[in-house]
Amino acid sequence: MDLGRPNAAKVQELISAHRAGKAEVAFVAVSASERQPGDRYLDSFCEFAARLKKLNVDDIPLLLGIAYFDISYWDHAVFADEECDLEERIHNVLFPTVAFNYSDFKRRTPEATGDILVDKKWRNRWCDRQMM
Q: How distant, in Å, are the alpha carbons of 14, 23, 26 from that of 6?
């Protein structure tokens, strides 16, 4: 919305419908873990919350994603157990050629650096599957 993208008006329409009680919408908290403008990652979830406040949308609920070490903001994620395989099934449908686990990605991908902040290919897929 703050970047002036073409769909910003549509997003604002959804927010208005939510506030009028005509729809239920939420922001995905995982958005805070995505690469930001300027090709950087946020240092804290507070930066993301401040951005929502600046856009006057901090009243919109947040949908929490599954917590992952070195990616998630712990206070804004849920913890899954080993038996929860829905995320992996979603990943395998969306990205069948990219390893689900970062450790497997590092082992199978020659260009992997071993740094989850640098390996954008895997991290972007992680964010995309969390959005589902």
A: 14, 21, 20
Domain range for residue 127?
81-132
Give the tens place of pLDDT for each residue, 50-109. 999 999 999 999 999 888 888 889 899 998 877 778 889 999 999 999 999 999 999 999
40 and 85 in a single domain? The answer is: no
Say what angle helices 86-94 and 120-131 make with each other, to 10 degrees.
Answer: 120
Q: Is the four-CA dihedral 37, 65, 94, 9 of positive or negative sign?
A: negative
Task: Please name which of 6, 11, 10 lies closest in space to residue 28, comparing C-alpha atoms.
Answer: 11
Tokens of 93: 């449908």
CA pair distance 128, 122, nearest whole angstrom: 10
Burial category of 55 from C-beta neighbours within 10 Å (exposed 0-12, middle 13-18, buried 19 and up) = middle
**Are 115 and 72 in the same domain?**
no
